[in-house]
Specification:
It is a single chain. The longest helix is centred in the middle third of the chain and has 18 residues. Helices cover 30% and strands 25% of the residues. It folds into two domains: 87 residues; 60 residues, no CATH class. It has a three-stranded antiparallel beta sheet, covered by helices on one side.
């Protein structure tokens, strides 16, 4: 199911890849994701959920908890699914030290050291767009997912000029 078919109040998890996925890999993720969702349950109740790949590096997984709550066991199953997917694709979806930033109209995945170098050279600035992958509500995708770099955890490690 597409995320747009879920209620805006749906709970969301965002997993960021450590590299951009190929078009073929995006298709693999979405196909495997839909199979996973068809069987995803919480205490025997089917979860109304959706999955999408955005910008070639983010997996967005959401569940409408007004239909059925995601429980500890069901969340563990989703993490296991993402972990397995990462192993198959040789992608790390759990490295929180990378940021995706928009540089000259294109997204780049940067480790903190690379980000620091781009800030020091003036290529990346405090207002450069990045992503807040800690949002928990689907509605926030449109209002709070894209943020300025100065609003992130990484900003305390950077010196903007």
């Amino acid at each position: 199911m597409k995320l747009e078919n879920l209620k805006p109040s749906s709970r969301i998890w965002i997993y960021q890849a450590d590299r951009f996925l190929t078009e073929e890999e995006v298709q693999q993720v979405e196909t495997a994701g839909n199979i996973f969702l068809d069987n995803w349950t919480a205490h025997g109740s089917a979860l109304e959920a959706g999955i999408e790949v955005k910008h070639g590096c983010f997996i967005l997984l959401a569940v409408d908890e007004q239909v059925a709550n995601a429980t500890g066991c069901s969340i563990d199953k989703s993490v296991h699914f993402i972990t397995d997917l990462g192993s198959k694709l040789k992608v790390d979806f759990f490295n929180r030290m990378n940021l995706v930033v928009e540089v000259k109209g294109q997204y780049e995945i940067l480790a903190l050291k690379e980000l620091e170098e781009k800030v020091n050279s003036g290529v990346v600035k405090a207002e450069t767009t990045t992503f807040n992958n800690t949002i928990t509500e689907l509605a926030s995708i449109n209002s709070a997912w894209k943020i300025a770099l100065s609003e992130t955890w990484a900003a305390r490690h950077l010196v903007f000029t």
